Amino acid sequence: MTMQTDLLAWYYANARQLAFRKNQDPYCIWISEIMAQQTRIEAMLPYYERFMALYPDLPSLAQADDEQLHKAWEGLGYYSRCRNLKKCAVQCMEQYEGRLPATKEELKKLPGIGEYTAGAIASIAYKEKVSAVDGNVIRIFSRLYDIHLDVTKAAGKRKISELVEESLCDPIEYYNQALMELGALICTPKSPKCDLCPVGRYCRTTDPESLPVKPKKKERKIVRKKIYVLTDGSRIHMVKRGPDGLLANMYEFDETLPAEYERMESLGQYTHIFSHVEWHMDAQMLYVKEGDNFYTIDQIENELAVPSAFMPFFEEAREKLEKEIE
Q: What is the spatial distance between Cα 117 and Cα 112, in angstroms, rounded to a whole number?
């Protein structure tokens, strides 16, 4: 018996039945892997189902309306991933006859597809014998071999990569998924379930929670914001952000106090945490006269891509407006 044999036997018996694993379709795997970045699988699944209903294949995604596409991605965050999906789909239609290429090296040339995602698509969909090293795999191999090198630095990355490459076996599509599943369900960052681990007898570490070694995270920058939700009594004013930077092309509320308004009501405070910055926001709803760029509640809910950072204020504003209309 080997580590690989034990791991695969565990995977066949315990793998979660996930929608994107059903037919090993490269498009499904690609979308699921991009969505799963920075998002737990369980939280991602409803978004995945809705997205696939709207964009079931590469041609439909390549032709997607940008506003609708952002709306479909709403709530998943890291919106550059969404924009890269369409860029990638367009490139596949133009350069790869409407298909995702079949090798890791070719996949890495596409927008938004890095080393790990390319390896996942190539190995799971096309059975190319290549690695797919994500955070789960780094954690597993750091612990299996008791690696105390900083895995964010070149030496640590190289060591983990070498060990993973040496371990690759057939069927590669299931081996790579088994590693991902082991990291998600058993070899977790905190409180790993070592007593249930199918490869525990091969593991060299005596302190799994101390691995992998990473530098301390920098403290996030704190930005304080005043948010003004302008309403004419039934509709809400929304501003479209620019094409670059954080939350590009999405809709937000005003941050400039208007010169004239009839009355003002508090919508409370909310802190939204991004990877590198925290927005500490204080919002007011201001009643103003009718103007341009006002949208109904239904339009905002169904047509505009509004970042989750602003949704608590939208919910509060909607509740107030609905009470007034009653």
A: 9
